[in-house]
Design a protein that fits this description.
The complex is a heterotrimer of chains A (about 230), B (about 270) and C (about 240). With about 270 residues, chain B is α/β, with parallel strands linked by helices. Chain B contains 11 helices and 12 strands. The chains are: A mainly alpha (about 230), B alpha/beta (about 270), C alpha/beta (about 240). Chains in contact: A-B, A-C. Chain B: Pfam families: PBP_like_2 (PF12849). Chain B: This is PBP superfamily domain protein.
């Protein structure tokens, strides 16, 4: 416990790696998930409902299964084995992207669909096509989308099942907060594990507070510069 | 503002999200939780890394999973403790050659109340028979690990098949040694564990060692280079260097010098 | 400034338009020609098909049968690009007042420098000069509707459709908007506006389309329709309207 409070360098490296992996994963997921979610919100095609149901279901995809699938892809005997990505932070980012993208896509779809309903006639009156309306809607839904990002980040940073399989919990390489907690629990160091858990919660709170402050500020500044 | 945030995120993330220092040579060792949880590897590896500049990345799982991962080629060296399975691994061509590295022993721990009255005994088979007769709670790894395989062999010698009682007094956790010890500690169950993990375990609660010293509790560790004929990406020279070091005088001395609370946990016995 | 003579010759017409939903006829207009300079006000009770007709004219709804024509040609994308519409509930983008105008100007390919001065000009026209950077969603009802009208005018439309733009506003706000509409009409924008307010029709209309039950029951000069309605339906609506 004193170790934690004194800001042990090794611990901070673990915290930093957790943040790096999860922030990177959320950014990539947003780049994929937001356009996909928005497209699903405005497009009309057969099978759309099925896709939405599928996407919503993927939000609850068990991390261990995701970890296993990513492992099988990245393993040397798997199709992407030549890339030598297994047991690297990149592998953990990939697994988290698979976990987080459906969350961001599904929440984006929901938010954008509600907004699209409100804007529908106005945008059509202005001659904005469905496709062209996607960036408009995404931008106007930006505040709600920040929440989607945070939900994704929450899942990513708190997840252990997938990253321990594809990362291997290798000291100084792929050991993150959650896998450290798992390791310390298995060593019976329950107090240390709990303390690490408290730090994890603290980080989650801090990130949420920071992003919501920044997005409020961004909103105000955005209006000033428009 | 938003642009600034994104820039900050990229700075925070971008620099090191790529595999850490790709130019530094490294090997991946598939090993067991006992070598890691006991602190042995953290203790001996810096010596090897300083000497050779080779970073040793340890993936600590059960012996069964470690062997399966090695069969998939996801490791360069295998360091586990189940001689039969290791020999099979080499015989099937997945490994080059097996070397003895070190040994320690298993111990039977259980609650202080000791409902099966096995305390102080030296005969592990008799102790297990007693546990099964009074149907005292027993926590098993149940995960095909080296410890689990050893435990099943002991039950076999006791002419008992506790899996018939699975879910009643016999509890299979399907987890690592530490997690299983946590379960046993929580429910006051008997459990077979390697001494190293037990020694370094922090949540013993009401548990203590009840049976130890039976020659049948001997626990041998072996090391194998994954066969490059099966997986050409195996880092042969670095992996072989690690094996040579570990079974050589420096590695053996390092193993012998690792002590926890004044007690030596692993005994080098490379030939 | 638009050429007034050209506008006067342009004709928006409806031929054999029918809209039926679930076996119920919602709109049935065999023929209607809007060829005067306007403003044209479409008047009638709730559910008479006023808004539906307006949406057909703007191409937001395609009728089951019949056609909307601009100068004898079926309504096409080019025609629609020269139309604009303001809705009962203004739909403003979640951006600043200026950004709402900038959005449509940019879509028209206006260069940045020109946009800036055009925005200032428009905001002055709508009395929103002081609100450039304010969030559009924080405007009052009247201000929001004025911004919606400015945004429609920013498109420089030939025809401006308005669907009960003042129905939720107080008399003061209503008056400001009516003035904006009249100024636009004077500048040559053809106004087609739905209202249920007879007083408003009297104040603004050059000609009036009276609707009832999905039918056009009367179309004529404002004075004639209001003071000497020919149809029973119009007479009844005007009588009822005067009472309330």
């Amino acid at each position: 416990m004193a170790l934690i409070l004194n800001g042990d360098a090794e611990l901070w490296a673990i915290v930093l790696l957790s943040l790096k992996v999860s922030i990177f994963a959320v950014l990539i997921s947003a780049l994929i998930g937001m356009p996909v979610g928005a497209a699903l919100a405005v497009a009309r095609f057969p099978g759309r409902r099925v896709l939405i149901v599928l996407m919503n279901a993927l939000m609850g995809f068990p991390p261990v299964v995701v970890g296993l699938l990513v492992y099988l892809m990245l393993s040397r005997s798997g199709p992407l084995g030549v890339l030598e990505l297994l047991y690297t932070p990149t592998a953990m980012i990939i697994a988290q992207v698979v976990l987080v993208t459906p969350i961001i896509a599904a929440l984006t779809r929901q938010v954008v669909e509600m907004l699209a309903e409100e804007y529908s006639e106005q945008l059509r009156s202005l001659g904005v096509s469905r496709l062209a309306s996607v960036p408009v809607l995404l931008w106007d839904a930006r505040l709600a989308l920040v929440t989607a990002l945070l939900a994704g980040f929450g899942r990513a940073i708190a997840e252990v099942g997938a990253v321990i399989i594809v990362g291997g919990n290798i000291n100084h390489v792929t050991r993150v907060m959650t896998t450290t907690i798992a390791l310390e629990t298995s060593k019976g160091n329950l107090a240390l594990a709990l303390a690490l858990g408290a730090i994890l919660i603290g980080i989650a709170v801090a990130v949420n507070a920071m992003v919501s402050t920044l997005s409020l500020q961004a909103e105000r500044e955005g209006l000033r510069h428009a | 503002m938003i642009r600034n945030v994104i820039r900050a995120a990229w700075i925070a993330v971008g620099l090191t999200a790529a595999p850490v220092s790709a130019e530094e040579p490294f090997i991946v060792v598939q090993s067991t939780t006992s070598t890691q949880n006991s602190g042995l590897l953290d203790y001996i590896l810096p010596g090897f890394e300083a000497e050779t500049g080779i970073d040793v990345r340890v993936v600590a799982v059960g012996t069964g999973q470690a062997i399966r991962n090695a069969i998939n080629g996801d490791g360069d060296v295998l360091l586990v403790h189940s001689k039969l399975a290791e020999d099979q691994f080499v015989a099937d061509g997945w490994g080059v050659e097996r070397f003895d590295v070190m040994y320690n022993d298993f111990v039977l721990v259980g609650p202080k109340s000791d409902p099966a009255k096995v305390r102080g005994g030296m005969d592990i088979v008799a102790a297990l028979t007693a546990v099964s007769e009074v149907e005292a709670p027993f926590a098993s790894r149940g995960d095909d690990s080296g410890t689990h395989k050893a435990e099943m062999r002991l039950w076999d010698w006791a002419d008992a098949d506790p899996t018939d009682a699975s879910g009643t007094w016999y509890r299979e956790t399907g987890s690592g040694m530490g997690a299983t010890l946590n379960v046993a500690s929580g429910m006051g169950a008997y459990v077979l564990t390697d001494r190293a993990t037990w020694q370094s375990f922090g949540n013993r609660g009401d548990l203590e060692i009840l049976v130890e010293g039976d020659p049948r509790l001997f626990n041998q560790y072996g090391i194998i280079l994954v066969n490059p004929d099966k997986h050409p990406q195996v880092r042969v020279s670095a992996g072989q260097r690690f094996i040579d070091w570990l079974i050589g005088p420096d590695g053996q001395a390092a193993i012998a010098s690792y002590k926890l609370e004044g007690q030596q946990l692993f005994f080098p016995n490379a030939k | 400034m638009r050429d007034l003579t050209l506008d006067m010759s342009s004709c928006l017409s409806v031929d054999g338009v029918r809209i039926t939903r679930k076996g119920k006829s919602l709109l049935n207009v065999p023929h209607l020609a809007l060829d005067g300079p306007g403003p044209t006000l479409i008047l009638g009770p709730n559910g008479s098909g006023k808004s539906l007709l307006l949406r057909c004219l703007h191409g937001l709804i395609v009728s089951d049968r019949g056609q909307v024509r601009q100068d004898g040609v079926a309504l096409n994308a080019d025609h629609k690009a020269r139309q604009a519409m303001v809705f009962q509930q203004p739909v403003l983008l979640r951006r600043s007042v200026a950004a709402n105008l900038d959005f449509v100007l940019k879509r028209q390919g206006m260069p940045r420098s020109a946009r800036k001065s055009r925005i200032e000009e428009l905001l002055a026209e709508g009395g929103l000069d002081g609100k450039v950077r304010q969030s559009a969603r924080s405007l009052s009802g009247g201000e929001a509707q004025r911004l919606a009208i400015l945004r429609a005018l920013a498109l420089d439309p030939e025809t401006l459709f308005l669907d009960e733009p003042t129905s939720a506003l107080d008399p003061n706000a209503t008056q400001m908007i009516e003035r904006m509409i009249l100024r636009a009409s004077t500048r040559g924008v053809r106004i087609v506006m739905v209202t249920h307010d007879i007083g408003q029709a009297r104040r603004l209309a050059a000609d009036i389309v009276m609707m009832q039950g999905g039918h056009v029951v009367e179309h004529g000069a404002a004075k004639q329709v209001l003071d000497a309605p020919k149809s029973d339906a119009a007479r009844r609506y005007l009588a009822g309207g005067l009472v309330t």
